[in-house]
Amino acid sequence: MKLSLRYLLAIASIILTSSFPLYGQCPSAAITTARAQSGSNYNLNHIATEFKNPHSDLALITAHRGYWEYCPESTIEGFQAAIDYGIEEVEMDVRVSAPGSDSNGKSYPNGEIFLTHDWDLRGEAPGPLGVQADNNLYTLKPSQIESRTMVDRHGIASIDSAGEAVTMHSFTDLLTSYVARAKAQSGAIQASGGNVCGNTDGDAALLVRGAFLILDVKGGEKDWNNPVYGTPIPGMVGQYDTMQEAFRELGAFECQNNIDLSLSIAFKLSGNRMPTTAAEFQTDVNTNLVGGINDPYLILIVFDNDIAKSGYTAMLQDYRAHYGAYLGGDWQLTFPGNTLEPYVESERAAGYGVAGFQGNSAYPEGYRNSDATCLQSEDPLPPNPTPCNSQPLAWYASSSIDFLIPPPSLGISRMSAITTDNFKAALLYLNTIGMHNTTHIQ
């Protein structure tokens, strides 16, 4: 199949912007009525339904960490810019800080949730170079994190279109911006029908239209044996504990603002760090762990080395059968020829959605690990131990996912949701092959 000229130009634009400074090209996060009316305007309930029971002519596009081309990853600026483009889903990474207070004096006894992929902030919002204690998110209090300047994918301090520094933001900051846009968008919020604060009276507002938010919840388990910071990482918090704090903060936000966000947000976690049955998880949801929020949407990440474990497939089936807000699996199909493909075929044959990464060709910037060490794209193993912010320009990276060509081992036609940095090229490509019919989510 021939690739269209527009698609090839979209690929070329990414490569070209890898060579030039991005100063001032990241749109400001400020929301106006005109901006809100011109962006994504999808039926959020239909997106969730599509994820679970997909149509063959629609693969949902998820903008990985926002508008990565011009904005720092996992920032409100990048989040809003992706929505400007009309993308139906945006994924943001979250981790939890050390316990402490923010700059306004609000206390977070379990730490505060921040938007970041990395726990070592040298790759995203570097403090003093080489000073490990000043870059470990798990040992920093909220007030020490919230004003740190983010760097773009070249590793350069980011300035937005209004001339302001792009700084790190909390999960609550993101929710505030998300709802502010919805309030300025006609029909995005119903005056009633929502349930918050543990009530079921339906008198809260309900967010029903816009872009779907996916939170990729991160924990420190994968980095437990860290050669630089020690074992264990000082202050390390696991993924499930991070998720619980995110639930608490979401519940507090909904209660304070009398708005139900249950249709608009999904939490993505590694299945190997979840309770083994849906009943156990449901018990947590119904206790004080989550602050009275409704059953949250779940997407469980599946790695090829997980699926071979005894009971793992049964766990996924149990969540699908007994947890109504389970949307499906996010299959880690980055590596050609991996062992997940038979399971993915089985999912699709049963009519279930298949979400996954597309990581066949690396960007010129290469890859970056969550401990801020860099991998050169042509030689991903072993990791280069040098921090990203002291590497040559071509080694800086925001992530390891792209969408330049379909992977040889898994056809795009089998995917129902695709996570990608290059969402513009993905959109053009899916339109070319007739797999982005968004009438299903209007």
What does this structure look like?
Keywords: Signal. Residues 64-97 form the GP-PDE domain. GO terms for molecular function: phosphoric diester hydrolase activity. Residues 1-24 form the signal peptide. This is GP-PDE domain-containing protein. This protein is α/β, with parallel strands linked by helices. The chain has one domain (5-441): Phosphatidylinositol (PI) phosphodiesterase (TIM Barrel), CATH 3.20.20. 26% of the residues lie in helices and 19% in strands. It is built from twelve helices and 19 strands. The chain has helices spanning 5-17, 33-38, 44-52, 76-84, 142-145, 171-183, 239-257, 278-285, 304-307, 312-322, 341-349, 423-432, and strands at residues 42-43, 60-64, 89-96, 100-101, 107-108, 113-115, 189-194, 204-207, 209-210, 212-217, 259-260, 265-270, 297-302, 326-331, 355-357, 367-368, 373-376, 379-387, 417-420. The strands form five sheets. It has an eight-stranded parallel beta barrel, surrounded by five helices. A three-stranded mixed sheet has the order 7-8-11. It has a three-stranded antiparallel sheet with strand order 16-17-18, with no helix packed on it. Strand 4 (100-101) and strand 5 form a beta hairpin. The protein is globular.
